[in-house]
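Hey,
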Amino acid sequence: MNVNIHDSWKAKLTPEFEKPYFKDLVKFIKKEYETTQCFPPGSQIFSAFDLCSFEDLKVVIIGQDPYHGLGQANGLCFSVADGIPHPPSLINIFKEIENDISRPYPKSGNLEYLAKQGILLLNATLTVRAHQAGSHQKKGWEQFTDKVIEVISNEKKDIVFLLWGGFAKNKAKLIDSKKHVILTSGHPSPLSANRGYWFGNKHFSKTNELLKSKNKKEIVW
């Protein structure tokens, strides 16, 4: 497993790569990719870090697991590769963007355009077996991604963290709320959204207002 990440992250995370748990994780992932079908493609496992440099980082969105359907996952939480039908949670994200800031619903579900604007689209677990949700949980990924959140909290300031749903909200304990802004809501999945816990959160306009207040460039959602 090649750790292809932006040089700015390497300086922050190299000590983590040397730890026993991460070396065990690499062995596990290599074997999984050799013996079963896994997602995302190996070259895209660390896309969230490759497309969003540490210096440019302004916003963090935390997901749980990559999509486990054929051709979906591309290394960015909630994102799918070009030409892939939009999963239900992504549909609801785009609907809320449309309702909140009147941006037309997009054709592609690829969120690379957000990563390139300084949004870290971070799944807690970066890989998964095909058609087996959660199959790579508790193998070391969560320890690594928790460390990523801690590094961001400690070494950056005025980052907007968007925590959607119970799993993401649990990560709030890793974030210094005196230095950063945490916005929470229900998850964009239909189960949560249809109960009224997602739509109307206005996280996209709120994020831009917060960025503007810190003289940072707003996100083109």
